[in-house]
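Replying to the earlier thread about multi-chain prediction with a worked example.

Input:
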Amino acid sequence: MLERIESLRAQASEAIAAAPDVAALEELRVRYFGRKSELTSILRGISELEPSERGPVGSAANATRLALETELESRLAELEAAEIERSLAGESIDVTLPGAPPVAAGHLHLLTRTRREIEDVFVGLGYRVLEGPEIEHDFYNFTALNHPPGHPARQAQDSFYVDPATLASDVVNDRKRAPGPQDMLLRTHTSPMQVRAMEAQDPPIFVIVPGTVYRRDTIDATHSPMFRQVEGLAVAEGLSLSDLAGTLEHVAKALFGPGRKTRLKPDYFPFTEPSVQVDVSCFACEGSGRLADGSRDSLCKGTGWIEILGAGMVDPNVFGFVEGAYDPETTQGFAFGIGIERVAMLKHRIPDLRLFFENDVRFLRQFA
Amino acid sequence: MKVPFSWLTEYCDPGLEPEEVAELLSMRAVEVERVTRVGVPSTEGFVVGKVISAEPHPNADRLRVCEVETGEGAQTIVCGAPNVATGQTVAVALPGSRLPDGSKLKLAKLRGIESKGMILSERELELSDEQEGIIVLEGDHEAGSPLDSALPIADAVLELDLNPNRVDCMGVYGVAREVHAVTGAPLADPPWQLDAEATGSEGVEKLASVRVEVPGLCPRFSARAFTGVEIGPSPAWLKARLTAAGMRPISNVVDITNYVMLMTAQPLHAFDLDKLPGGELIIRTAAEAETMTTLDGVERSFDSQTVLVCDRERPAGIAGIMGGLISEVSDETTRVLLEVATWNGPNILRTSARLGLRSDASARYEKQLHPELALRAQRIASRLLVEICGATLEPGTIDVAAEIPAPHRITLRGARADSLLGVRLDRDESKRHLERLGFGVEPVADADLELTVPMHRHFDVSREVDAIEEVGRLHGFDNLPRALPAHADLIGALSLEQQARRRAEDVLRDLGFDEIVTWAFVDPGLADRLRLSADDRRRSAIATANPISEELSRMRATLLGGLLDAARYNAARGAQRLALFESGRVYLAESAPDAGTAEIDPAIAVLAGSFAGRIASPAHEPHRIAAVTIGGLAPGAWVTAESDEVEAAGFYELKGALEVLGAQLGGRVGLVPGSEPFLHPGRAAHIEVDGRPIGWIGELHPLVARAWDLPAANAFELDIAPLVAAATAGDEVYEDVTTFPAVLQDLAVVVAEGVSAQRVREAVRAGGGELLAAADIFDLYRGDQLDQGHKSLALRLQFRAPDRTLTDDEVAAVRARIERELDAIGGALRA
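Result:
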């Protein structure tokens, strides 16, 4: 009897392993474990055996049944997995077709992005961000910035004047509080906010002022009657031109890359003294003036340096126009102005200022 | 300012290349924009020649065949100039030499005779425009000697980009002084040290008189008289210098005035004395609308602030700007009155701007010259007129001058300089630098210097801080250490309103909008194209007085115009779908809200148009966000989602974007039906926050869309300040919504068409009370199963209590109240 059980086991094992599909396996289940199967009848007939045989035969038959059932289940799982794989094979798609985003990607204007970049650099340095009016009194735009009437620098920044008859009448009356010429104009720089900021806050003061400014320039590739600047003003005890130099070097590295160097040259602005121009080493030619192929670098015109901003120590006369805690004799601070368009054009090699205002979506969408 | 290098180094020669000098000047003194070259690329092959003979060409009437000694024997040179003659010393280019245009001179056969070189005219050497005849060299030059020893045939030119404070560098000697200061190379004695000898017999007082009626506008007027003046072309060296400096040689007298100006920065003017009746000059302001024809042949009209130099009868010149035609020096002139004056800078600037007339003289005068300079220029010019024009200087100088300002005296404190520059300067170094610049310097106390400012810097340096700039720049701004301010109060952050504005812009970007930036200037016709009524405050009231053009003459009072312009621009270039937004200001003719009053929340002051400062801004400049969509926001992907055709889908899509914008800021944006002249009357709404209107949304009126050549479009515009003020993002407080689950039920309500979804929702909410946590409309149905003129709205209701799970009975009671509320607006539950 035991031999028979062993033979059944070998026979069934072989059949299970050879079953080609789930259906065949179901047939085997009936054949070997069904009510009419030989193994079932052996188990059912145990009581009729000699008592000495019952034990060994019973345990052999049960062990065989258990083993075969495990083999069958495992073969079943194997066959089912294979069948799923077969059906999936027919469901394949072309993953290289384009994605279908829930919404098309939008874009911030490059000028917004650049303004934010500059803001973030200064926020990291501990500055706060202020904003000021674009339609401004002559006092803030010129007089308080040490441009007395008749000063050549007033002419250099050809201004748009505002027709006072088109402003609210109480505003026109209010301007009499401003010393100097009574004109109102579109600010020619973000610098008017220097005096406004100091009127509102005693030193120390560390602020930047991004904003739109206007000059009566004819529109061409490098001129626009409307463009953007970021003004900076820092006033605190003992601030020096060296602090300005270090600050702007940090900013140049943050905006144009850690390998950049800066240099300071004499310059002139009526509201700073001393005044400097800040150049950054060219990032196209790494300061050599020559591109990799040996040709002259057009970005820096072969000089290895690019002018990026004007700056200086706040002129004592400007402090003199602020009432209160800004004693021209003892107060020290620095100021600077960066052109947002200029930074964006340099960083992204944009050849024509007009592209910013044309708003061609094919241009806008180049900048994430 | 163009500075010929050979001229510059005549006064101060540091033995450096032009590019090296340019770099030093840029880093320590004044910006040199570029270094250019004039004349021939190489002086090789250019020699002095002696004309041994000049015979007519056998085959050409206008050519001569010359034998010219060039140091290596006589050469045959064919020459086309009418003035070539035996015995002349001439400039010769030998074969192989390169001309200024870069071309190489070759042996050439001219009508059968080989020419071994070329006898040169001034134009061929770019010394002047003169091309009529060849150059005839004066003085003693050996044949065959290098030509550049006789003529400046090659030079470098430094092109300076000068700031208005450095009028002293509008003269070559002033630039030489800077070279001296930055290099230490010796500076030649000033060219005005020697005066001409007055050998005339008449004296200026007999020949001329000057009356200054406006001494405040004319601090100095000096005049000298010259007789026996021989007008003619200037010598080649003088022409070469003028040409290299960018001026056209005219005649010796005029050239000398220009030359002295280029040397000293002091303009001069030569009158033909015989054309000044009685030799009288009167300096006065013009009568209103008085006219004169200037040297350039243009008749000009003046106002009463214009200063004129007049003869007895009429204006002879605009002071400091341009002379008149009548008394101009001409070929017939034999007696010259030389004017060298000092004018009031701001007045010259004003007049020059008013007339739109800028000259080399006005560019200098407008920056204010010192009266002392006038007599220096007289001395130099006198000597040149005598030497070059054979003139006789009449004794005496007419000099009508107000008091000459005393030199500024400044104490330069070493400690102050060190503190401002952030570096310890060596006092001896500073002293040396200032002395080279012409300052009088006396060391005092421990580290201080007592300075006397030289007259050439009088209007630029008057305070200690100005002197600190001088010692700083000559020490080298670039040599300063790079420090960073160390300050306890350096706490940087964007304000809440700045963060909120960024968030708003980011939300729109993430919803698929492209941001645009448009002009703040608009055209006055915009208001009509938007169909704005006469009293609409968006009629762009604020106008610039001097616009670039009428189309750019108004300040925008709505962002819509710029958006539609940009949409048209892109639609015309084939864009099918457009979703554009702008974040920017409008400019309203109202007084700006005053921060710090109850009127305005300081947290949103700037977005609301209230700015720091003692004096309020002249206009109201609130920040707005506006958007336009054409063709929907759905992605431009190759997959097309099957969607039901919903009427005015674009409107709801844009409204959805607006709601997301509000939700992302934490504010609840509501819409109430409203109208705008530029919107579809049935598809327009006003945007509200907390019951306050903050903007509008709607489908563009077809007539407006047509005016911009656009298909159907939807747009919104809103003031961002009130939205940010109502925002709660960041201030949210936890609420338990998970412990006791909500009960969800759907509700279908049939109402008449005229009942808005808003009213249905409000009725449901009123009935639902506190236990109704949400009621969201999810379907709208119209059709056969409903009575005519009715619609069915489906709502998903969410019932919840914070402290228990609601029972079926509780929910049924609330639902019954909702039904009663709906009944009150004519609504019935759909079976």
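The longest strand of chain B covers residues 46-57.

Feel free to reuse this layout for your own posts.
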